[in-house]
Write a structure and sequence with these properties.
Blueprint (H helix, E strand, L loop, with lengths): L10 H14 L4 H8 L3 H9 L5 E2 L4 E2 L1
Antiparallel strand pairs: 1-2
Length: about 60
C-alpha cells in the first residue's frame, strides 16, 4: 500500500496500515517515512486527529 496520499486516508485504516508496516517491513517510523518520502510529523499529526498517539518505545500508534 502506497502511503504517499496518507492525508486523505481514514485515520483508523491508516493507523492499522502504518503499525503493520512498521512491524513487518520497517524498524522505525523514520524508516517508513523515508521509504515513502512522506513527512513524519505530518503523519503523526494526521493520526492524532483520530486520537492516536505515537509511542516511540514500541514504535506503534495507539
Amino acid at each position: 500500500m502506497d502511503l504517499s496520499k496518507f492525508e486523505t486516508m481514514d485515520t483508523v485504516m491508516l493507523m492499522s496500515i502504518v503499525n503493520m508496516k512498521i512491524r513487518d517491513e520497517f524498524n522505525t517510523l523514520d524508516d517508513l517515512a523515508k521509504f515513502f518520502d512522506i513527512d513524519r510529523e505530518q503523519l503523526i499529526a494526521k493520526l492524532a486527529t483520530g486520537g492516536f498517539d505515537f509511542l516511540p518505545e514500541v514504535q506503534q500508534f495507539r
